[in-house]
Structure formats: C-alpha cells, structure tokens
Amino acid sequence: MRRGDRSAGQAARDSGLAGTAVRDWVRQAQVDAGERDGLTSSEREELAALRRENRRLREDIGILRRATAFFATETR
To answer: Which of 5, 9, 22, 36 has the highest local Cβ count within 10 Å?
Structure first.
C-alpha cells in the first residue's frame, strides 16, 4: 500500500480490517519513518509508561498523606 499500488480502503477490504485502522497504521508508519510529524511509536510507549508511573506515584502520595494524618492524631 505504501508503494502506491492500492489504497488504504482497498488494503482494509482485502485484509478484512476497518479502513480507519489501516489508515492509522499507515500514518504511524510514516511518523516512525520520519515522513510525517508526530510522536513515534517508542515515544508513545514512553509517554504511556510515564503516565502510568505518574498515576502510581500520585496514589502513593495520597496513601502517605493519609498515613501521616493518622499517625499525627495517634501521637497527640
């Protein structure tokens, strides 16, 4: 398809896939190849991992705040 011998819609029909999925894959392949602006696959993976870590750290902070408040009232 990237060689230009068929469209994304035709490739999707031939493969039994949704046309939007094929177009998204082609777009991401172009980004990964440097042909188009956007986040590469590795950058997307890193961003997702950082967001997961951020969410976990925020939960940890919440737990520590509650524990601090609990022990502060216990020691009075």
So the answer is: 22
Q: How would you class 22 by CB atoms within 10 Å of its CB: exposed for 0-12, middle for 13-18, buried for 19 or more? A: buried
Over residues 28-57, mean pLDDT: 95
DSSP string, 20-76: HHHHHHHHHHHHHTTSS-S--HHHHHHHHHHHHHHHHHHHHHHHHHHHHHHHHHH--
- In the chain, the amino acid numbered 13 is R
Percentage of the chain surpassing pLDDT 70?
Answer: 92
Instruction: Give the Cα separation of 40 and 30 in Å (integer).
Output: 9
More reliable by pLDDT, 34 or 8? 34
The phi, psi pair for 17, rounded to 5°, reads: -110, 165
- Give me 9's structure tokens: 């819609």
